[in-house]
């Protein structure tokens, strides 16, 4: 109330005395430190306790004296400052302290047959509450209280909200998975529509996608697992059907020509890589998955680049070529080798893998080429 600080030693002493008094009073009947004996006596029609005190009972008047002294100090300080508590409250607090002390001493000196001390304690506690209530609002906020109530309805509501959020999360995951599945189906369908314009590469989209899947799964089990994560691998597999998407911009007269291209026609045919990247970028421009968008664009744009820089459309060299495009290049060339085309015959698996091996370091990434040869059995199985 008045910012009066009681020395720490005095506070500790009071706490220790209270603890000793409590333990002593609780030991009645076992030890005689605080009470040697306590018995109920009826005399002249009055019932009262007859107590014989032990040595520790001397701590009670000491504690009362310390409390009274501290109380007098605080009240005196309050009266001196006259800031936080009224004169009436200050004097009332002093009277309460004197009442408790006088009751304690009076009972023992006069030998009253009626217990007055509990009544005095009760009056004193009420006075303390009145003092706390009289403290101005700006100081009352420093007081603390504990409130206990039944919050079962609130806990039930929180549990219901948590359960609803869990169910909503499951539904969102299911809907998202369904949307991804629909997106994949649309991608494959659109790629198939483009492929149907090319009479020379029937089934090429499906076969190269299967080869990419087998190859990527093999890479995940090798040293490439440090750079090729499961997420990226799945996106490369998903993007594989889009690698020839740019052929939709190539005239039918060139796309379906039954023979080899002349140089002018070949230059137009090579534009399908750049055109494909542009079309894929436009299709996926509103996609939230930026990583898949970049991988799909790279697969379409750079799958005809070569390790030695002689490829098209940009002439990229070695690791300038994105990993997904280097993977797609191996699957694309291999399927072209083992399939019938109007300008070439079908190579055997031995011949095709031999050409792939010879092109290591020139057309293909040497480390990827080595890994591709290692999964030959899985790839041949795909072709029956």
Give an overview of the whole structure.
This protein is mainly α. 62% of the residues lie in helices and 4% in strands. The protein has a two-stranded antiparallel ribbon with strand order 1-2. The two termini are 93 Å apart.
How are the SSEs placed, and which strands pair?
Layout: H1 8-25, E1 35-43, E2 46-53, H2 59-81, H3 87-111, H4 117-134, H5 137-140, H6 152-196, H7 204-220, H8 230-239, H9 252-255, H10 263-283, H11 290-302, H12 323-338, H13 349-358, H14 366-374, H15 376-382
Antiparallel strand pairs: 1-2
Q: Helical percent range? A: 55-70%
Largest sheet composition: 2 strands, antiparallel
Distance between the termini: 93 Å
Strand residue percentage: under 5%
DSSP, total strands = 2
**Main structural class:** mainly alpha
Q: Rg from C-alpha positions? A: 47 Å
What is the tally of helical segments?
Answer: 15
Outline: rod-shaped
Largest sheet, order of strands side by side?
1-2
In round numbers, the mean pLDDT is: 78
The run of helices and strands is HEEHHHHHHHHHHHHHH
Q: Unreliable runs, pLDDT <50, ≥5 residues?
A: none
